[in-house]
Design brief:
Helix content is 28%, strand content 21%. By secondary structure, it is α+β, with helices and mostly antiparallel strands. The protein has a domain at 1-47: YefM-like fold, CATH 3.40.1620.
């Protein structure tokens, strides 16, 4: 079975005016091309689902010194 991708083209003014509606359409799988001066300028489409997290990826690679408090000079650099 092939996936059919619906596509529409809108100008920048229409995209700004109807952004919420266009986001809903993109979320449902449609691809929207935003044109500026009649030329394709940007693409709005659905995001791919994130890959599932794999716990334990760094198991054994983070040892005790990682959890020790930072030296005062290092802490001071982060607080600027």
């Amino acid at each position: 079975m092939t996936n059919i991708i619906r596509m529409m083209r809108v100008n920048v003014h229409e995209a700004k005016t109807h952004l919420s509606r266009l986001l809903e359409r993109a979320h449902s799988g449609e691809e929207i091309i935003i044109a500026k001066s009649g030329k394709p300028f940007a693409r709005l489409g659905p995001l791919a689902a994130p890959a599932p997290r794999q716990p334990g990826l760094l198991h054994g690679k983070v040892d005790d010194p990682f959890f020790e408090p930072l030296p005062e000079d290092e802490l001071a650099a982060w607080e600027r």
